[in-house]
Design brief:
Layout lengths: L1 E7 L7 H15 L2 E7 L14 H4 L8 H10 L2 E7 L7 H16 L8 E8 L4 H14 L12 E3 L10 H25 L2
Parallel strand pairs: 1-2, 1-3, 3-4, 4-5
Amino acid sequence: MIRVLGIVGSPRVGGNTEQLVAEALRVAAEEGAETELLRLADKEVKPCDACLSCRETGECHIEDDFRPIFEKMVEADGIILASPVYFGSATPQIMALIDRAGYVSGGRGRVFENKVGGALVVARRAGQNFTFAQLLFFFLQQGMIVPGSTYWNIAFGREKGEVTKDEEGMNTARNFAKKMVWLIRKLKTREEP
């Protein structure tokens, strides 16, 4: 079984970022993956306080919703991190998650190593490429494998639903999802005896 987790870093439920992730997960499911969409909008993930205790314990001491989200990330074969662009960069919600996930992963022996991951980004006009790079840095620093698509995984939209009118952006997300499942399947086949 292939598991793909899509994490929406938008504070808006049902917004453009969530719609783009939902479309990618729909395609991943068509390709045979078990999928889950997780919204940070209804979760509390506080920023990392850089205490570094997780390097010793493998756990984060901060009490909030981080731990169950992190465990879902560990269980997934593929992780999609998605963010809208509000002020030229990724949302504080998604950055808090990946800062802490990166540290805890290090404390547990790099648990994301060789998993497949990728980013999806939505903006009204600009900031997509910078935000896309911000999210990609997490995957690359964690030793994950990032599949490509037909363009950068970005789409345009401001008001709810506008992203669905960006056909190129939607197709890029669909192609990315297909490539993600294909790559996970190839990697799993290599692992089998």
